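Now read these lines:
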Amino acid sequence: MQKLFQEIIQNDIKPYFTKQGYSKKDLNFQKADGALIYKFNIQKVKFNTVHRVGFYINISIHSTELAELQSGQPGANVVENKAHFICRIRELVPSAPDEYVLTPEIDPESLKRELLAHLEEAMAFLHTLTSARDIVEYYMAKTALYLSDETFRFLLRSGDTEEARRYLQQLHTKYGEQKRWAVFDKKFTAIFAEYGM
């Protein structure tokens, strides 16, 4: 199964990404487009065997604009290439499995066709996120705590104070009853203070 996995990477996945302008390093495929870096990562399951190889497809975007807002302090130590958008393929393509599995019983051609169709659908969505604002709005629509620090800094730096206040209320409505909210509330208050709010 390991040989089949390598063949799929070399003969199907790599050519697909190359055609889309992505470069390959190990099991990572990435493409820079302005201030964004789009990435696909093939992650092998930890406990593969001779007769079963499983793998996940992780998808991410790094935004240089959001990276500058990570710490809130100019010149502070910023995590290189932190993903500002991150998910597994199934989040973008509901028909995709959480884990792709290679066993002697599968039809390799069918699996390849499905895998490439899933990659194409995921890539089509991913490339609708073309700016830091698109990424911020994606997580705001989900009322996600992920990327919330950068979201507030992005909105406040852009002068979008009302939207920042609305998002704070949205987060409070969803998470305000949780014990951890006090930590987030303190952090968000400090971020608003950075911008004189």
Notes: The chain has a mean pLDDT of 92. Helices lie at 2-19, 64-68, 89-92, 108-126, 132-141, 148-157, 161-175, 181-194.
